[in-house]
Amino acid sequence: MEVALRRNWRLAVRSLPWGWSTAALVLAGLLAVPVVTIPIGALSSAGDAWSHVAETLLPRYLGNTLILVAASGTIALTVGAGTAWLVAMCEFPGRRFFRWALVLPLAVPAYMAAYVYAGIFGVTGPLQRIFRMVVPGSGDAFLYWNVMRIEVVAVIFGLVLFPYVYLPTRALLESRAGPTLEAARVLGRGHRSVFWSVGLPLARPALAGGVALVLMEVINDYGAVKYFGVPTFTTGIFRSWFSLGDLDSAVRLSGILMLVVLVLLLVERWQRGQARYVAPGEASPAAPYRLKGGWAVLGVAFCAVPVALGFFVPVLQLGAWALRTAPEVVDARFVRMAANSLGLAGLAGLIAVGIALVLAYANRLDHTNLTRGASRVALLGYSVPGAVIAVGILTISIALDRFLGGGARLILTGTSAALLGAYVVRFIAVAYLPVEAGLERIGPNLTEASRMLGVRPLRTLLRVELPLLRGTIVAAGTLVVIDVLKELPLTLILRPFNFDTLATRAFQLATDEQVAESAPAALLVIACATTVIAFLHRTLDGRPERGR
Amino acid sequence: MVAEASPSGRPDPVLRLTDVGKRYARADADALRGIDLEVGDRELVAVVGQSGCGKTTLLRLVAGLEIPDRGTVSIGGRVVAGPGIWVAPEDRGVGMVFQDFALFPHLRVDQNVAYGLKHLPKRERISRAEAMLEMVELEGLARRYPHQLSGGQKQRVALARALAPEPRILLLDEPFSNLDSPLKVALREGLTSVLRRTGVPTLLVVHDVEDVVVLANRVAVLREGRIVRQGSPIGLCQNPGDAYVASFFDRLRLPEANRFPFDEVTESASGK
Fold this sequence. Notes:
A: two-stranded parallel ribbon; 23 helices; 2 strands; B: five-stranded antiparallel beta sheet; 34% helix; 22% strand; disordered C terminus
């Protein structure tokens, strides 16, 4: 007995997590290189072009970006929090369907939704055609609603990105918050009162995390704002880079953008840091509020509208277009593109989740600022526009190729390995944040218990955290896969010669005003993403919903 | 069935469960079958049973957190659950202390206690919360947050919070399961004194008879969703009727078994 105790103690001491910290530092360093090149470049002396950009364009870029961030963030927060509460806490017709369907807009890339809505509201679109047919005398009149506006872009962002808020908030309400919300009810507080006084405060970490993801997506978008002619930081970077050939200004703009997102990440962190909630027991969803009459109708509408506008309307419109153009568009090349897209996305997802686990777990084993700082640095990739990461990767891969003495032979540059690396740098945060939150939810006790029983960290991870986090890990990997499938600017720059993915093809056709021809590729991206989401939802929902 | 009559001369019971049943789609042992149970004024009733016998479900049915499949639940003479009737938990006037206490982590102790007093004007709310904290002897900790409290303190806050709105009945879910032994004794005494002072009718579920006996004036033994025996603790102890019931009361008849197993080990070791 005593011997065993002593042995366990020794094991626990001996397995101090040096290896983990080192691995985390190395990985974080690798991930950070393409990102860190940006501020270093931005600190070098400014060229003449920059003063021009700073004076004439910067205020407009800044204004538009802030408007977009504020408006789409508010929409995503309202819709995401509201639907999460309804689905987790209320009983109304169609709840089970909406619980699942509310995730679907994640499958629709913002730029594809943008083409669709521009098409629907455009002069030759179905709405205006119907209007002309119904309203007599308007036949030839040039009827024109200007939908190419920043407000419309913000709404589109809100509609396709709100699931980033909905998903973590719903998960939190359904598991951890259950008993606490029940306590509030038993104390005699009504539905709305419980929502404001307990539900929202408890959900705050999930809300903050979700909104942070939404805003980063908004800042990173290139396709939608380009199509709608709304100049933002990202389009500004593209412009100064590709049109004006001014790398210096592009790097500076990216530097400012990185600062903005750094602030955002810090706010999210601070929100979570304040809420050091101890998980009260195991998952037990609260008894539902039964919505009746008008409230039930409102509840259904509040869920149905975002699902319809964020998913079904774009999909149906794309479907209509695809029916017309598929026979000529779908060929051997199309199939190859699809294989490229899926293979890359799957690999990137696996790698990203693996790295995220190492980083998050090292952070948990070793609470020094060094490890924590390493993971923060590694996450910065998400805050940097895809195009900027692409150039960072290009620079590095060219330098490496030169170092390897390739001369004419390029080992890394222009290969899918470079593209894959860029995806991981870009999307590691998507995998990391849920894994870290999941580890936090489990709490340190189990890890410590396992280690005090003489089990080393790696085995503890495999035997304790991984099984408990299975759902979280599948979810994290899936989010990465979907993001890679939808990714555009980075792929446009880094793809090997004569290499197309579904996203790049759809983008090229749409910008050439061949929107209908782009529909099959767009639809396939959405179909893949939808399938993945459906699979994910089934895996995660194996457990019973209510009762104990 | 009933081994001993409850205190005589009760008018309308505060809580009455009549033939209450609850089944789950997953066919767990947690279901309840034909439960008849009453809690009278100023009475403390304990429900004892192994885990999974439906104890917690029983409390949740009374609180309104579950909906029974059949039977009726009435509180203070008013039917709160029955055929075609279901009153939401927020409208039942029930106080509940959850097994894990379920304190609101984002609210201070005094805010937790005042949470159920929304109907009172602010000044009264504050003074009532202060009075409740004084009653559970935590007046010094009003400004703390739940994560700054010990387990025993958390339980007292949960108790103060549940009693603050003057519920018609108090429900206690395994009040001692999350606490360690020396604390249990002190808390049991604290809890008894608080319950005695307020006189609030109480329904308590536990898996361990040790906790109950000193507290309850009536004990119901629950097994696989049925009440198999009901009576005073002394009565059940002297005449348990079957082995299952007896297993809960074993310890009382053999006080030496109450000692730590360590004693046994030492004795046998020294005997060698």
